[in-house]
Amino acid sequence: MAMSPCSSGGVSSSSVLGADAGLEIRTRSVEQTLVPLVSQITTLINHKDKPKRSDKTLQAIQRVGQAVNLAVARFVTVGEAIANENHELKEEMSVACIEAKRAGETIAELTDVASLDHPESDSHITIFTDKTGVVKAARLLLSSVTKVLVLADRIVIKQIITSRNKVLATMEQLEKVSSFQEFVQIFSQFGNEMVEFAHLTGDRQNDLKDEKKKARMAASRAVLEKCTMMLLTASKTCLRHPDCESAHINKDGVFHQMRLALEQVIDIVTDSRSNGENELASISIYSGIKVFKNKVEGLRENLYFLSKENLSTMLEVILEHTEDFTDSAYTSHEHREHILELSKQAKMELEQLVSVWMQAQNQKTKDLMEDLEVAILKMCQCMNELKRELHSAATSLAADLLKYHTDHMVLKALKITGVEGNLEAIAEYTCKLSEQKEQLAEMCRLLRHVSGTEPLEITCIYAEDTFQVTGPQIVSAAETLALHPSSKIAKENLEVFCEAWESQLSDMSMLLREIIDVFEGRRGEKRVYLSLPRPGVKYVFACYKYIYRLQEQAKIAKLGLELHLLTSYVDSETEKWEDQENKIVQYVQGMSSMIFATEGKKLASAFHAFSDQLHDDGKPLLLLETEKLIPMCQQLQITAKVSVQGKSATFTKVDACIQKTRNVMTLLCQLLPLCCRLLRKVS
């Protein structure tokens, strides 16, 4: 955002902050906070040169100036409070607040014109007599306010870094635990810390302006989500089989992957310029073709803005990348031949374009300019055909591979041979999984070239990484199970890693659909990419699965409290009935005393009998709600009669019973007031 010291013309809200401010606004929240202030100041600046100055206009200007000053004063109060709570920012924040306050007061003084009959002739300096003063004050105000917001944003970044550090510290403890009891305790803490980190990073992801960074953040958070469950089962397997090398390899791989993802999040949040991000910028053929075509079409306006060597180099880079397709063992012969043919044609079209272009530079005749236009059109058409052929090659390959691997036969075989303890078979299926991994990784690389948008391109890159990492982890988990075929924990661990693989395949199907939508123009500008992970805390549930007992106790306690409140409400409703001997009242009282077995059915009969006395619009509603009561009571009876063994199963049964009881009591809370009203009508 930049505002130049305008003199006469109108000022737009997109040119409000001086470039010399050196402040980059990276989040939507900061940008949106500035919008009202920008709008008001723009109004003031655009009014300073208007010749017509009615009393109404002068009053409006003064109101805007006062509103700006008041808003800034409140804003400064918040900034000063932030400074007092964050000593490392206090000095910078205090200076910015002082500047903002001073600028706000200056604007209020310059706009104090409502009481002046002839503001330009008065000795009092105003927006009309000091035209540069209001621009200067506006720039200072916007610069200082932006600085306060950016400094406040640093606190959010600090919170994320602090949260990440907590997670890392707890992960180090988890790596060193030697007993299940210790692991449960620390993993519980880890779960809580991941909840905090998920919320903070999810909010930050939504707030980022840069779509590329937002996609990278989403991908990194998805890695953390999937890895949390893997970390749980891999750690449990190591604790159960401490001398198993493959179990330790499996666990170490998960911890390493999580640390990389955590660092990636911090790189994005702190805007670190990693080498990886620079690499991402130049790998997409689609991006290269788009830039190349823009340069070619730019020749219509300017024949001298680039050299023929630059244009040739750009095409050369694009054609080098097409070798990813032509060299791939998975590209069909037909697609390979078409790509090679179009690449050759592109070189010929460029030669023709350069020839006409050079002639036009020397002699800009009408005929030469027409020839140049034809050459430009033919060059762009050739690049479009090349793009279409690459898209067809990548998407058809992806569709075939995803369809072929939907049966998950290799994963199923690894699970079976693992339980059988057949290490030779494990080795055989490991080779097949490795081959499948290479196929899917190649698919991701080709899709990345034709993805069409940076967010989808980044998703392809992370998908490739996921297959490359998860494949070996499945192998180590399978080897562990084969060495300990009766181990339930090792079996569960392999299941988790296989599920991660299957989940990634499912994500790829969604990603493929979106890439096709982008190519065919079916995606609107504001559409959310379904393949990109949303901010969420799903992995929190994985964290808490292991501390199931503690969570279930808390859950049951919460449900019990809700049920107690519902029961109290039902009791208060029955007390409103004048006839306490009414059968409906008696049955409800029996149910609120937890005698559901027979009282619920009797209550339903009583409601039906009562409905026979009704002849108004309330009867259908009463019958409709009553019909829900009998199956609810029957479900509760069935659940209560089921015999279970073990603490976990008992908690599950108690939870189900309380849930169903709560549903019944909630229905009663709706039926009782309705019956009471209808009863008064027939009495």
Describe this structure in words.
By secondary structure, the chain is mainly α. The protein has 23 helices and no strands. The termini are far apart. The relative contact order is 0.06. The N terminus is likely disordered. Keywords: Cytoplasm. Belongs to the vinculin/alpha-catenin family. GO terms for molecular function: actin filament binding; cadherin binding.
Helix content range: over 70%
Strand content: under 5%
> How many helical elements?
23
Mean pLDDT: 80
Helix/strand structural class: mainly alpha
Calculate the terminal CA-CA distance, rounded to whole Å. Answer: 73 Å
State the shape: extended
Radius of gyration: 35 Å
The beta-strand count equals 0
The helix-strand sequence is HHHHHHHHHHHHHHHHHHHHHHH
Largest β sheet strand count, sense and barrel closure: none
Low-confidence stretches: 1-21, 115-122, 275-281, 524-551
Describe the secondary structure blueprint for this structure:
Elements: H1 28-47, H2 55-85, H3 90-110, H4 131-176, H5 180-207, H6 211-240, H7 245-269, H8 275-280, H9 285-298, H10 308-321, H11 323-326, H12 333-362, H13 366-404, H14 409-420, H15 423-449, H16 454-483, H17 488-519, H18 538-546, H19 548-574, H20 583-592, H21 596-611, H22 618-641, H23 647-682
Helix pairs in contact: 1-2, 1-4, 2-3, 2-4, 3-4, 4-5, 4-7, 5-6, 5-18, 6-7, 6-16, 6-17, 6-18, 7-16, 9-10, 9-13, 10-12, 12-13, 13-15, 13-17, 14-15, 14-16, 14-17, 15-16, 16-17, 19-20, 19-23, 20-21, 21-22, 22-23
GO molecular function, one term: cadherin binding
Pfam families: Vinculin (PF01044)
Organism: Apteryx owenii
